[in-house]
Design a protein that fits this description.
Number of domains of chain A: 1
Number of helices of chain A: 6
Largest sheet of chain B: 7 strands, antiparallel
Strand content of chain B: 15-25%
Order of helices and strands of chain B: EHEHEEHHEEHEHHH
Shape of chain B: flat
Helix content of chain A: 40-55%
Oligomer: heterodimer
Distance between the termini of chain B: 47 Å
Shape of chain A: globular
Structural class of chain B: alpha+beta
Distance between the termini of chain A: 30 Å
Number of domains of chain B: 3
Radius of gyration of chain A: 18 Å
């Protein structure tokens, strides 16, 4: 399969990433460390669009405060719909707040509201805007890194996906501690794989 | 839509390739070579694409300081196109055809004659209107080789990719879930797993299997029907 085909046929990874993020937000009640940026609050903001897992013609859009917490959202997941676009709010270090829409299939952001820029000089404003945009990108890349670590490890089929299915069914699955243990094991497997290659 | 102010709706690209030691000099020369030049009514081109300064579509001089902001390379992509009012063009063409028929005594004009009249009318109209102008900023982080582009239109992104490769001799790769994954520091086994990964159902597994099987059957039926045609 050539690169263009692979890009198109793997767009589902974007929706799986959003679903995993939804799972993690609920597991950790919206606050967790992200990469080197430290403690970050993350939550779904005012809109979430879901499509059918197989038939993308089946669509539902949820609007309002915390759309991911509604019974309609839970039912949509149980019926096999996956999020493909959502507005998210992230607060880094307790005071830098971002609001943006994430398009999972395109893996892109739109309508990004960045934290207020305090500098007045035009050139400095450019550098501050870019610092903030690149910080947001770092947040997303760090989250995606953790998702991909789990997604491509043998633990995905054996433990992570089953836990997420239990969550979709409204049942208790992982605790934050057991989730952290999964991540550690996936990291250890990755390091072992990298060491094996270097030998 | 801009890098300097306004909404942040951006597409992310990775720039593939290496920068040479003298890239400031070579890039500036290449950028100026493909700087935007306005459309004129008498030329054949209906559309023109070129570089301008970031945030300033009217500035195509592109000095070093207008392009290089420390570790960033900033540009604007300007696209001008003639958009002639269709109804007016048609009305003037009909008048011109009627006048020509009367002068020549012919009953109708051939395609070549009509096209020639249409071109003349279009040139005349172009002297009375201005081309439509669109302008999109880009910011290229030369350290991380990530490029941010202020348009999510596929067509505009393709136009950017073509002009970028012509100018810099480097490839632009648009991010997607797959590309974003390959940009991470994957091990060999992870890269292998990525190349064959399939979608995970999070709802009832048996129902998901039935849906997948039904979808596969429909795809096979469609393929067979196309073959028979």
């Amino acid at each position: 399969m050539d690169l263009v085909d692979r890009i198109e046929t793997s767009r589902f990874l974007g929706s799986e990433f959003l679903t995993w993020l939804w799972f993690k937000i609920e597991l950790f009640e919206g606050t967790f460390d992200i990469g080197e940026l430290g403690s970050t609050e993350v939550w779904f903001d005012t809109a979430m669009a879901l499509v059918g897992w197989v038939d993308e013609g089946e669509k539902i859009t949820l609007r309002g405060t915390a759309p991911s917490s509604t019974p309609e959202a839970a039912e949509a997941l149980r019926q096999g719909k996956v999020p493909h676009k959502a507005s998210l709010r992230m607060v880094v270090g307790g005071n830098e707040e971002y609001v943006f829409t994430f398009n999972a299939r395109a893996f892109s952001v739109s309508g990004v509201k960045i934290p207020a820029i305090l500098t007045e000089a035009a050139e400095e404003q450019f550098y501050e805007r870019m610092r903030l945009l690149e910080q947001l990108d770092e947040l997303i890349v760090s989250l995606y890194d953790e998702f991909v670590l789990l997604r491509l490890s043998p633990l995905w089929d054996g433990e992570v996906a089953p836990a997420m299915r239990e969550w979709v069914r409204g049942k208790e699955s992982l605790t934050p501690r057991s989730y952290a243990g999964l991540v550690q094991r996936a990291l250890a497997q990755r390091d072992a794989g990298a060491r094996k290659k270097r030998k | 839509m801009g890098a300097l102010a306004g909404p942040l709706t951006v597409a992310k690209f990775t720039v593939r390739g290496e920068l040479t030691d003298d890239f400031h000099t070579t890039f500036l020369k290449a950028i100026r070579h493909r700087a935007f030049k306005p459309l004129t009514p008498d030329e054949e081109a209906e559309e023109r694409i070129g570089w301008c300064a970031v945030g300033s579509p009217l500035d195509a001089e592109l000095s070093h300081d207008a392009v290089f902001y420390n570790s960033y390379l900033n540009l604007g992509l300007r696209i001008d196109k003639w958009r002639l009012p269709a109804t007016l063009l048609k009305a003037e063409l009909n008048d011109a055809i009627a006048e020509r028929l009367q002068k020549t005594g012919k009953e109708r004009l051939g395609k070549t004659e009509k096209d020639e009249l249409k071109d003349r009318i279009a040139t005349r109209l172009k002297k009375r209107i201005l081309p439509s102008m669109r302008h999109f900023d880009l910011v290229w982080n030369l350290d991380s080789m990530v490029l941010w582009f202020w348009s999510q239109s596929q067509k505009t992104q393709e136009q950017l990719s073509v002009l970028f490769e012509q100018t810099f001799g480097l490839e632009l790769v648009l991010h997607s879930p797959y590309v974003a994954a390959t940009a991470l520091d994957l091990t060999e086994s992870e890269a292998q797993a990525l190349s064959t990964v399939e979608a995970t159902p999070f709802h009832a597994a048996k129902k998901a299997e039935r849906e997948r099987a039904r979808d596969k059957t429909r795809a096979e039926d469609r393929a067979q029907a196309e073959e028979e045609e």
